Amino acid sequence: xxxxxxCPQCGKRYPVTADRWKxxxxxxxxxxxxxxxxxxxxxxxxxxxxxxxxxDAMPFHRQEDxxxxxxxxxxxxxxxxxxxxxxxxxxxxxxxAPTLSFKDRGAVTVMALARRLGVTHAAxxxxxxxxxxxxxxxxxxxxACDVFVPASxxxxxxxxxxxxxxxxxxxxxSREDTAxxxxxxxxxxxxxxxxxxxxxFFHEGTKTYIYEIYEQMGGKLPDVLIVPVGNxxxxxxxxxxxxxxRDWGYIDHLPxxxxxQARNCSPLAQAFAEGQLSVxxxxxxxxxxxxIAIAAPARGSQILELVRAxxxxxxxxxxxxxxxxxxxxxxxxxxxxxxxxxxxxxLLRYRASHPESAEQTIVxxxxxxxxxxx
Length: 374
Ligand SMILES: *Cc1c(COP(=O)(O)O)cnc(C)c1O
Ligand SMILES: [Zn+2]
Prior knowledge:
By secondary structure, the chain is an alpha/beta fold. The chain has helices at 40-43, 66-70, 103-116, 129-141, 155-163, 175-189, 201-206, 208-216, 233-247, 267-273, 300-309, 319-331, 338-353; strands spanning 4-6, 13-15, 30-32, 79-81, 89-93, 121-125, 144-150, 167-171, 192-193, 224-228, 256-262, 313-317, 362-366. The strands form 3 sheets. Strands 4-5-13-10-11-12 form a 6-stranded mixed β-sheet. Strands 8-7-6-9 form a 4-stranded parallel β-sheet, with helices on both faces. Helix 4 (129-141) links the parallel strand 6 and strand 7. The radius of gyration is 19 Å and the shape is globular.
């Protein structure tokens, strides 16, 4: 089967072309292609450490040049104890990535696709890390990038983006205003929309996060998976991999998924708690967790549906808890950007409110490096 985009809302299918980024009905696209179940026994002998070791289950071919030109060895991040004396809590060190956040997993697949399609000009909008990753892979592939960020984005992230030669556009107002500016540039200027939110190739990269955990834990998954959610790029990739591993017969039950939002900006957690099918506008306040501060996630209904379908739950964390969690992690030698500390804050909350969790293995990601934020 040829790779195609599919709209989960109306069922319409589209060929994968450079100008297609959502359905005519407005739905966010997913994708279908011939996927081969992974053979983990064979993989155990494979010296490839990057996420490309999983290419059989990705919409790319081994012989292709596009991903070989793009890769910087992303993926293959360590699974570490935070506290050596607490072996049940494991942190996935995503800050080991080439641009220091897990967004490299999805940026490399989206930009390899851009290369395959012959794209010369791409645009992206981001609160920072996705834009940085797109800019880096764009530079590597000779694809000119325009990156739209909220004016409030940290100077360090902006410096990282411009270092790669991308044109930066600081957009005043909300995160949604930034997205609107990027979409405008895509519609008017004809750039490829290298969107970590709309392009489903992004999830084909982030899903490898779960494959790696499965291998690193010796062919199983933890009891609990803590995953941050703003637009859900890691969460949607994770859900994709969980259903694949189940379909292929590698796991017979799913870990409990705990989705994390900052209390100050928690539209998904609120919609989930109220049993809503889609995200309605809720009042939000500023949060230090800039990377997950998404008031109107485009894939909101998809996320709610998936988290419900797999019996997951939401946790929200307060600003003070986020700041304290960052300090706590640093005491164990792990320095993450503020957004990422929300995951550890959620772990502490989860453990405090679920006595049974003392016996559970829990994996949480350290999504971005500490030097990225103030
Ligand atoms: C992107 C990102 C997240 C998760 O955000 P989504 O919008 O759900 O993809 C979490 N932490 C950091 C540091 C990030 O860069
Ligand atoms: Zn549609």
